[in-house]
């Protein structure tokens, strides 16, 4: 029996909730732990990943019939590298101060597992339209994860949100350290899993 194809809305929300790259698939942990110290860092890196994911997925979906199976991974890498170069130059030109803080992580998007994984499992097997919505969902899911981590770590570590002082003191400086990134990711993974369990139980009732 042929599996039912997901609608555009299902593809969109799939990356944000059911297959969130950070909290459900545990992919691209390096930036999640290393750069998610503030909300703004999460927004900027998340936007960069969203851009690269969408354009890489659409590119591969458009040329999938011309890619020889033996060179598909190098083709994915070259495609991702091309779009990473574009967003890298754009960020360096328009937001230089923020770019200085996360420049190395933008370049490392080439090696982010989430992008390569979606090209291999989805874009190379589906049309451009579906790949576009899948890329949007996955990119926004990653952005949401980075922003959520940034919000918790910035607020608890520095007492600020988007640079604005909201607490008047620094509650727990530990949260801006790399070790806190693992702690926050693990905690939010547990919350996502619990939410899914509750949802499935209510769905059966």
Describe the structure.
The protein contains eight helices and two strands. It is mostly helical and 205 residues long. A hairpin with a 2-residue loop joins strand 1 (160-161) and strand 2 (164-165). Helix 3 (39-63) crosses helix 5 (96-107). The protein is globular.
Helix content: over 70%
Question: Count of DSSP E strands?
Answer: 2
Task: Output the helix-strand order.
Answer: HHHHHHHEEH
- End-to-end Cα distance, whole Å, is 28 Å
Shape: globular
Side-by-side strand order of the widest sheet: 1-2
Runs in which pLDDT lies below 50 for 5 or more consecutive residues are: none
Offer a quick outline of the entry:
By secondary structure, the protein is an all-alpha fold. Helix content is 70%, strand content 2%.
Jot down its keywords.
single chain, 205 residues, mainly alpha, two-stranded antiparallel ribbon, 8 helices, globular
Blueprint (SSEs and pairs):
Layout: H1 8-18, H2 29-34, H3 39-63, H4 72-94, H5 96-107, H6 113-121, H7 128-158, E1 160-161, E2 164-165, H8 178-204
Antiparallel strand pairs: 1-2
Helix pairs in contact: 1-7, 3-4, 3-5, 3-7, 4-5, 4-6
